[in-house]
Design brief:
304 residues, alpha/beta, 7-stranded mixed beta sheet, 18 strands, 25% helix, globular
Length: 304
């Protein structure tokens, strides 16, 4: 089953050097969810073959324009395409009001229902408990309220030994996948779980840390995740600028990943001052070798 992170936008502040504003789409099993929705997001989705109406959940980290100004266009296009299925939207205080004002003055009534959940930026909270995955917020230190997101697959059922399946009914299979023995009416073990099953495949995890100052307080939340996205807006020679604008340097992102013992680090949200990104990559890799650039069009897969 898939667990893919599709990068749609990687730049900060304004589009530059062929790079667009922040947005990512995660394809997890048969779900498709979006994190942040900067300008050009729906154009990028079309370019990279991602279907808008398959989105079930959208998570917005904060209300700086480079992270949400593509949202209204995306919502409008899904309406024009005749979407009927409900959409679940998570974002900071004020986002719902912004959307309602757009709809009011456009005299538009969406063809689908939006379920909006307001996020708190001051503490971590579980905001989605779905049969396939959970999403928890990560409080970040930015100039306005901003949250990251920790996405984890739910524990998976045990796997059946293929050579044994023919002996089992559907009821037996369901019981064994839950890790239980199958017993008969007398309470005797009919099928011992360990004889018929293999260990479950591991559950995968992804942490998204949007705009933030360097902040080790959140390390316990992201510790040992398979894949970490952390902004790396500036080179460390511009640390003073990074701190003044509540951002992180590539070096700091690498240090954070190393201390968090993650599997792989992605850096993004690149400043317009950098046309070439290799210096940012090299700076992060000196601290954490398994680092990659979150460049547009790339797909990062987390294996089971």
């Amino acid at each position: 089953m898939s667990f893919e992170v599709h990068i749609l936008g990687s730049n900060s502040a304004a589009p530059a050097h062929g790079r667009h504003h922040t947005s990512q789409v995660l394809r997890i099993q048969d779900m498709q969810i979006m994190i942040d929705c900067g300008e050009s997001t729906q154009i990028q989705m079309k370019k990279y073959g991602l279907r808008k109406n398959r989105l079930s959940h959208i998570f917005i980290s904060h209300l700086h324009g480079d992270h949400f100004l593509g949202l209204m266009g995306l919502l409008s296009t899904m309406h024009l395409n005749g979407r009927k299925t409900d959409l679940y939207l998570y974002g900071p205080l004020g986002l719902s009001e912004i959307i309602q004002l757009h709809l009011k003055y456009a005299n538009t009534h969406l063809s689908y229902l939006i379920h909006f959940q307001e996020l708190r930026g001051d503490q971590s909270e579980l905001i989605l408990d779905h049969p396939k995955l959970t999403v928890r917020t990560i409080p970040l230190n930015h100039r306005i309220p901003c949250t990251g997101f920790l996405i984890k697959e739910q524990p998976k059922p045990k796997r059946l030994k293929k050579e044994k399946v023919g002996e089992l009914s559907v009821r037996d299979i369901n019981i064994l996948k839950k890790g239980k023995d199958v017993v008969n009416e007398a309470g005797e073990v009919k099928f011992k779980n360990s004889d018929y099953t293999l260990p479950a495949k591991r559950s995968r995890s992804y942490a998204y840390c949007s705009d933030t100052k360097y902040n080790e307080d959140i390390i316990p939340l992201v510790k040992e995740v398979d894949l970490l996205y952390h902004e790396g807006t500036f080179l460390h020679e511009n640390l003073e600028r990074a701190e003044a604008t509540y951002h992180t340097t590539a070096k700091q992102a690498g240090i954070f990943a190393q201390k968090s013992k993650v599997g792989q680090l992605l850096i993004g949200h690149f400043s317009n001052r950098y046309k070439e990104l290799n210096p940012l990559l090299e700076e992060a890799q000196k601290e954490f070798a398994n680092t990659a650039l979150a460049q547009e069009g790339q797909v990062f897969t987390i294996e089971e």
